[in-house]
Amino acid sequence: MRIKLVALAAAACAALAVVAAAPTVAAAPESDAGTASRPQERDVRFLDFNFAGNGFNGGDTGAPVTDTANRIAAERAEIIGLNEMCYTQWVALRDALKAKPGYAGLSDQVVVTNYDIPNCYDPVVNPDGWYVMGLMSKYDSERVMFGDTPYLDLGYHYRERYRKLVCGDVDIPRAREVRACVTHTEVPLPLVNETSFPNDPDIAQDPNYGRSINYAQAEVIAEAITPMAKRMPVALMGDLNELPFLPSLDFFYSKCGGKGVFNEVDSRDPRWPVIRHFNLGTEKCGHRQGEWTMGREGQPDIYDQPYSSNRRIDYIFVDQRHFTVGPESGWVITTPFSDHRIAVGDVTLKR
């Protein structure tokens, strides 16, 4: 487990398509040419960050954006997931990153999750006060369509928050194309028994309403991306608003009772199995933990007190068929410009 000090953010709509002319290798042996054209095994660095652009940063396009751009570049992140940004901040970050070495070809896929946010308003860049989330990459990427829309609507729009899933097919140099997805699920407002979920998250008066929505949205995401992982590498990044060992995450984890096909990059933090065992009375499991990503240094790790304790709610999942995750694959970075920490992961993309 490595912990660093860092922050970040990301960029705007549309995918760039770059067509490179195929070189002719006159004297190259046929076997060499074939090897060069085949995807190679290589490491890929992911980064996920909830920028907290409105509530924490008040729409500021200055220091928070500059700090984030610097940290992304310092980490040499290749595929980046971002939540909670004013579109003005997104544009500022995109432009700042494009000026960094290695990021001139940056591409991004962005979707609107809220409208008419006063702190986000700009008469030129953001006249409708958009609040956005999305994907950024050092490389070319192509937006994935869900039917007729360039995102998947997760439904259950509580408090005018339009939770979505956005995906882009990222063209990794000398490797396979990766389908990278970013999301942000609903906050489980009431603190309830984590083993009890109502059948109908549409019932707003249900005392378990918030957590039920989180569970339902996680299921919608899993139903969409799990079949994709059968045919291509898939990654899921974002603020999932639940702790690793709770039922909403069963849809993604492939281990410790999970029903999913994914591994999380930072799933071996030694504290969480103790907390899980103590609070829920369940078996310890060494593959569904993770260093905390929301909270504050010095706060306790008490899972059922989410606003007075530290907890992991931001994730980088990669499918187990196409990626290898090691014990040191994941780490977090602290930043003064968000109430979330940055999650980073190095994983191996198989040939």
What does this protein look like?
- It comes from Actinophytocola xinjiangensis.
- This is Endonuclease/exonuclease/phosphatase domain-containing protein.
- Residues 1-20 form the signal peptide.
- The protein is an alpha+beta fold and 351 residues long.
- It has one domain: 4-Layer Sandwich (Deoxyribonuclease I, Chain A).
- Helix content is 17%, strand content 24%.
- Strands 1, 2, 3, 4, 5, 13, 14 and 15 form an eight-stranded mixed beta sheet that branches. Strands 6, 7, 8, 9, 10, 11 and 12 form a seven-stranded mixed beta sheet that branches.
- The longest helix is centred in the middle third of the chain and has 17 residues, at 209-225.
- Mean pLDDT is 83; it is low at 1-35 and 190-198.
